[in-house]
């Protein structure tokens, strides 16, 4: 034993000194047995077998890394496509009132009967609608008599149904709804019958 351990042992009672020496001896024996078992359990591999095992581990690691990278590429490309589809949502939402005003103006021009003016405004209106459509904006098709669905429609009021078949159904569409891709960016505002 080293000098420090001897000094420590002398400061302790004899009983504790004996227990410490026995504990150290037991630990040394267990460590030596453990080393022998590890040596006996591990058969000696030739250099070629060791290299084959290392190669197998590296291939496995490479395949896992490659699969993880492929999943990452697929996920990011899907997220990028989704972002492109909805990136212009704010612009589209800002354009909806302009489109509504255009529809109302066109209806008023038709009432006045000036065919040349109506035709010119229709051309501009169609060009605006087609441009917005090419960017993914689609009107939601809702008409009188459709079944009201609170997931797809926004009821602004309920009136007595003019016909019995319109009870619980849409009586009038006050404001058209729009989708951008698969996402609804403005719900159609409807009047329902009771």
TrEMBL record:
It is found in: Cytoplasm. Keywords: Chaperone, Cytoplasm, Stress response. HAMAP family: GrpE. Belongs to the GrpE family. Residues 32-50 have a biased composition (Basic and acidic residues). InterPro entries: GrpE, GrpE_CC, GrpE_head. This is Protein GrpE. Its main location: cytoplasm. The gene is grpE. It holds the Pfam family GrpE. Participates actively in the response to hyperosmotic and heat shock by preventing the aggregation of stress-denatured proteins, in association with DnaK and GrpE. It is the nucleotide exchange factor for DnaK and may function as a thermosensor. Unfolded proteins bind initially to DnaJ; upon interaction with the DnaJ-bound protein, DnaK hydrolyzes its bound ATP, resulting in the formation of a stable complex. GrpE releases ADP from DnaK; ATP binding to DnaK triggers the release of the substrate protein, thus completing the reaction cycle. Homodimer. Residues 27-50 are annotated as: Disordered.
């Amino acid at each position: 034993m080293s000098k420090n351990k001897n000094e420590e042992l002398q400061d302790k009672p004899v009983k504790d000194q004996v227990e410490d020496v026995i504990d150290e001896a037991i630990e040394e024996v267990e460590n030596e047995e453990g080393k022998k078992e590890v040596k006996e359990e591990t058969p000696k591999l030739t250099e070629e077998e060791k290299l084959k095992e290392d190669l197998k581990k590296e291939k496995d690691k490479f395949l896992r890394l490659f699969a993880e990278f492929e999943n990452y590429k697929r996920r990011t490309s899907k997220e990028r496509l989704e972002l492109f589809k909805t990136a212009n949502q704010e612009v589209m939402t800002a354009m909806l009132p302009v489109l509504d005003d255009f529809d109302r103006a066109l209806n008023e021009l038709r009432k006045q009967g000036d065919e040349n003016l109506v035709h010119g405004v229709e051309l501009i209106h169609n060009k605006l609608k087609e441009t917005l459509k090419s960017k993914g904006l689609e009107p939601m098709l809702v008409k009188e008599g459709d079944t009201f669905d609170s997931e797809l429609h926004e009821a602004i009021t309920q009136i007595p149904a003019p016909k019995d078949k319109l009870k619980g159904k849409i009586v009038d569409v006050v404001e058209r709804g729009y989708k951008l891709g698969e996402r609804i960016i403005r719900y159609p505002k409807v009047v329902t019958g009771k």
